[in-house]
């Protein structure tokens, strides 16, 4: 969190500096810019009780379209992973080029089929020209119109950056700028292309396209509301904003964070209750059909993403029942190199318990060793020994640095197939004691599975040992026992309490 806060502060300073430098107009199409992308603070100031019903309808539409979007992208991504992308990396490039050409052809061809409309009467002090000047972004695009006093509403959406297109849909004082036919055409086209494009081998997100889809049908609903409630002061851009929030809520299933983001980027705090309303409705409707977009994609890729709360049936289960699906593979403290290589080839476990035997013959779990650490040991070969006896850790120098055991960010790391071991290497031994985690997290076998689930969520665990119920207790730690002074000694009150417990 501190890293995110620090980088955000740097971004804010850099953007402010760039904004001041670009005020003179030397930045071209980058313009002056700013943090608030779609300022609708000059739009609708108030809302009426009669508007709550169409706003609730927007939430329902957002939930339905968002759930359908998640399901369609799931099918498309599954098809890509299972058939298309297995043909090689060139296929990914061809796919991106084909989709790009289709998008360009549709974006240029559809506005040609749309007739131009006459420019409306200009509103004083609105700052909106019809048609807009050539080479500028904004409202009212003149695209192959017969006269200079006309504009093409479909081209107004297509021939803009997505930011400017969203600003046009959110804009106030532009009543009847878009026709219902143009909005429906753009919605069907953009929704289909968003489904097809999502999952291709291009760096693209879903946040801004989701706002485009939602603001389109939101503006469409706003047009019908304006015609139905003729006497009320209603802006179509307000419904476009609520539509954008509803689709994001129905697709991504986020509520609080989306609400804050939409209020920040629109700079209109008065619309906060309405945004909360459509977000709650769209999320409830979407949850009735499937999971959120990111949860669906994470599950498809096999990422073990845990939900915020455990399932209800876990209350009736214990930890022992959850770990019966796989056999535990334990390693002795001193193990042959050949056995390590065989175990790593025969399974894909990420961690292995390490056991040792006491003088009385009792088996003792001494820690956990990771698969990646074993691969590093096999590759370096500096810790191989001829003796099958444990070595003295104090007399053994450290031959590795911490960077050797760090997992690389840009690759998958080492594989057992990449390591070459000779016949002499396979007959040697490794003492795992210096390379294991001597204090892994441990739970008793009869612990409730709900508690185990919460431990994984709250502590960010990847491994958890399940052991038999302990036979005795050697101590009891409370919060006050952890209040240790900087010099390593407890305070006088805690020391007195510890003494009294010992006496008792």
Strand and helix map with partners:
Layout: H1 2-22, H2 52-84, H3 89-112, E1 117-118, E2 150-151, H4 153-158, H5 162-170, H6 180-197, H7 207-228, H8 236-252, H9 256-266, H10 272-287, H11 293-300, H12 319-322, E3 331-332, E4 334-336, H13 337-346, E5 351-357, E6 363-370, H14 371-380, E7 384-385, H15 423-426, E8 429-431, E9 442-444, H16 449-459, E10 465-467, H17 492-503
Parallel strand pairs: 3-5, 9-10
Antiparallel strand pairs: 1-2, 4-8, 5-6, 7-8
How would you describe this protein?
- Keywords: CBS domain, Chloride, Chloride channel, Ion channel, Ion transport, Membrane, Repeat, Signal, Transmembrane, Transmembrane helix, Transport, Voltage-gated channel.
- InterPro entries: CBS_dom (IPR000644), CBS_dom_sf (IPR046342), Cl-channel/antiporter (IPR051280), Cl-channel_core (IPR014743), Cl_channel_pln (IPR002251), ClC (IPR001807).
- Belongs to the chloride channel (TC 2.A.49) family.
- Its main location: membrane.
- This is Chloride channel protein.
- By secondary structure, the protein is mainly alpha-helical.
- The chain folds into four domains: 8-36, no CATH class; 38-113 and 161-300, Clc chloride channel (Orthogonal Bundle), CATH 1.10.3080; 320-440, no CATH class; 472-504, no CATH class.
- 47% of the residues lie in helices and 7% in strands.
- The protein has 17 helices and ten strands.
- It has a three-stranded mixed β-sheet with strand order 3-5-6.
- Helix 8 packs parallel to helix 10.
- It is elongated and about 95 Å long.
């Amino acid at each position: 969190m501190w890293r995110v806060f620090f980088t955000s502060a740097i971004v804010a300073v850099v953007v402010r500096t760039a904004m001041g430098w670009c005020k003179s107009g030397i930045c071209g199409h980058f313009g002056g810019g700013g943090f608030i992308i779609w300022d609708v603070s000059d739009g609708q100031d108030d809302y009426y009780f009669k508007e709550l019903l169409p706003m609730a309808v927007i939430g329902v539409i957002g939930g339905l379209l968002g759930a359908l979007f998640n399901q369609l992208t799931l099918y498309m991504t599954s098809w890509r992973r299972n058939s298309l992308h297995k043909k090689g990396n060139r296929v990914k490039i061809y796919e991106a080029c084909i989709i790009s050409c289709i998008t360009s052809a549709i974006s240029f061809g559809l506005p040609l089929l749309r007739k131009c409309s006459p420019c409306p009467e200009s509103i004083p002090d609105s700052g909106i020209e019809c048609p807009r000047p050539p080479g500028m972004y904004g409202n009212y695009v003149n695209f192959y119109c017969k006269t200079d006093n006309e504009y093409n509403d479909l081209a107004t959406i297509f021939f803009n950056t997505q930011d400017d297109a969203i600003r046009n849909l959110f804009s106030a004082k532009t009543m009847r700028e878009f026709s219902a036919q143009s909005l429906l055409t753009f919605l069907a086209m953009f929704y289909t292309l968003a489904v097809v494009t999502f999952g291709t081998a291009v760096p693209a997100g879903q946040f801004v396209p989701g706002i485009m889809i939602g603001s389109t049908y939101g503006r469409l609903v706003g047009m019908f509301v304006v015609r139905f409630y003729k006497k009320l002061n209603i802006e179509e851009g307000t419904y476009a904003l609520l539509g954008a929030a509803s689709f994001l809520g129905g697709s991504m299933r986020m509520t609080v964070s989306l609400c804050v983001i939409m209020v920040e980027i629109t700079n209109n705090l008065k619309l906060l209750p309405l945004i909360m309303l459509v977000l709650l409705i769209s999320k409830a409707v979407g949850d009735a059909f499937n999971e959120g977009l990111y949860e669906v994609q994470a599950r498809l890729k096999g990422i073990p993403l845990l939900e915020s709360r455990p399932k209800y049936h876990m209350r009736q289960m214990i930890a022992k029942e959850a770990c019966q699906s796989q056999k535990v593979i334990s390693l002795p403290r001193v193990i042959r190199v050949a056995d390590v290589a065989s175990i790593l080839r025969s399974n894909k476990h990420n961690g292995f318990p390490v056991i040792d035997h006491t003088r009385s013959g009792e088996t003792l779990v001494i820690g956990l060793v990771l698969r990646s650490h074993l691969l590093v040991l096999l590759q370096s070969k500096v810790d191989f020994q001829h003796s099958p006896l444990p070595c003295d850790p104090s007399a053994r120098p450290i031959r590795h640095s911490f960077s050797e055991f760090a997992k690389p960010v840009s690759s998958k790391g080492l594989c057992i197939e990449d390591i070459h071991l000779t016949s002499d290497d396979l007959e040697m031994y490794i003492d795992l004691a210096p390379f294991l985690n001597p204090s892994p997290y441990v739970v008793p076998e009869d612990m409730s599975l709900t508690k185990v689930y919460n431990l994984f969520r709250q502590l960010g665990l990847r491994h958890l040992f399940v052991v038999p119920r302990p036979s005795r207790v050697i101590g009891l730690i409370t919060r006050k026992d952890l209040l240790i002074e900087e010099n390593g000694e407890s305070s006088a009150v805690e020391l007195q309490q510890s003494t009294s417990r010992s006496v008792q």
